[in-house]
Amino acid sequence: MSLTPIVAADLIHRLGEFDAVIDARSEDEFALDHLPGAVNWPTLNNAERIEIGTLYKQVNAFEARKRGAAIAARNIAAHIELEVIDKPKDWRPLAYCWRGGQRSGALSLILSQIGFRVTLIEGGYKAFRASLLQDVDLIAPTLYFTVVCGPTGSGKTRLLQALAGQGAQVLDLEALASHRSSVLGAVPGVPQPSQKHFDTLIWDALRQFDPLRPVFVESESKKVGNLSVPGTLVEAMRQSPCLNLQLSDTERVALLMEDYSHLVRDVDYFCERLAVLIPLQGRAVVEGWMALARSGHLPQVVQELLTKHYDPAYLQSMQRNFVQFKESKTIAPEDRSIRAVADLATQILQKT
Questions:
Q1: 97, 149, 242, 271: the active-site residue
Q2: Are 247 and 333 in contact (CB under 8 A)?
Q3: Whether residue 97 lies in the annotated active site
Q4: Which carries the bigger pLDDT value, residue 286 or residue 188?
Q5: For the segment 180-225, what is each residue's pLDDT rounded down to a tens digit?
Q6: What letters, b where the CB count within 10 A reaches 16 and e where it falls short, cover 170-188?
Q7: 292, 300 contact by CB (below 8 A)
């Protein structure tokens, strides 16, 4: 039997040593957040966890433990039958649950008795998350960020994607947050992750970067949609060198019409989102934009949104928050096309 505990602070740097990372919590707990690459083997599923919790409160702990043990034994047997039978003897899993270790401990004990070398996280997910947040604070100041600035519609995301495609290190916070970081930025049918999972995704990206190479990132604010960017990361970005991406107004409008095609197709939803701007722009202005949109004049609405709302706010934010924005180098592709943006990415990397 080989069952080894590991403290979360050590695991942070050893996560890649294991053949599998097993989350023994319920499906809902797993969906909220989990370790990178983890698979979910619930010792108690959602309904069972509620049942045992209710028994614990309404009857007593002993009766809850008996009933929980019976359910857990059946579930663990099913996981072994489904997932473990074909595993070789040198298979090395890492297991965890929420905090106390009862759920993952039961699973780990049986796996270790089979003969596998099992590692169990002391303090479970809760301890790992605390170490993760501390590690983000340590990593972020060590990285050399290059911040891609530029007004709305200038193609910052397209440039980041082109840079990544050519092997550059890229931190795409909007992709991690499933949001385009504006009042119109929600991605249809794609909910944002939980704050906890967003933090985990950021940590997982940061820990893989080479500190000797630049990391390209967009000039995000402290929030992307409903999610907060870690403070140390925000501060590191705001102290970093900037590139100022520019594109003509005509090209910007066309780019936004392409990238936000779902709003072009669903004008009612577009108008619904515009209503959020009433406190900032006034009811008369916003209702005028709604009327134009419904009459088929979307390009005009987009142009006015840029000049009256997005551009002034963005410029003020850059000047106020990004220390090196005034010294930023202006860059510009020939047009909004993928080819032109890829050519610009090549030029940037050649000079880096």
A1: 97
A2: yes
A3: yes
A4: 286
A5: 988 788 888 899 999 999 999 999 999 999 999 999 999 999 999 9
A6: bbbbbbbbbbbbbbbebee
A7: yes
**Tokens matching residue 124:** 């479970």
One-letter-per-residue 3-state SS of the chain: CEEEEEEHHHHCCCHHHCCEEEECCCHHHHHHCCCCCCEECCCCCHHHHHHHHHHHHHCCHHHHHHHHHHHHHHHHHHHHHHHHCCCCCCCCEEEECCCCCHHHHHHHHHHHHHCCEEEEEECHHHHHHHHHHHHHHHHHHHCEEEEEECCCCCCHHHHHHHHHHCCCEEECHHHHHCECCCCCCECCCCCCCCHHHHHHHHHHHHCCCCCCCEEEEECCCCEECCEECCHHHHHHHHCCCEEEECCCHHHHHHHHHHHCHHHHHCHHHHHHHHHHHHHHHCHHHHHHHHHHHHCCCHHHHHHHHHHHHHHHHHHHHHHHHCCCHHHCEEECCCCCCHHHHHHHHHHHHHHC
Q: Model-level pTM?
A: 0.94
Q: Which two tokens stand for residue 303?
A: 């142009």
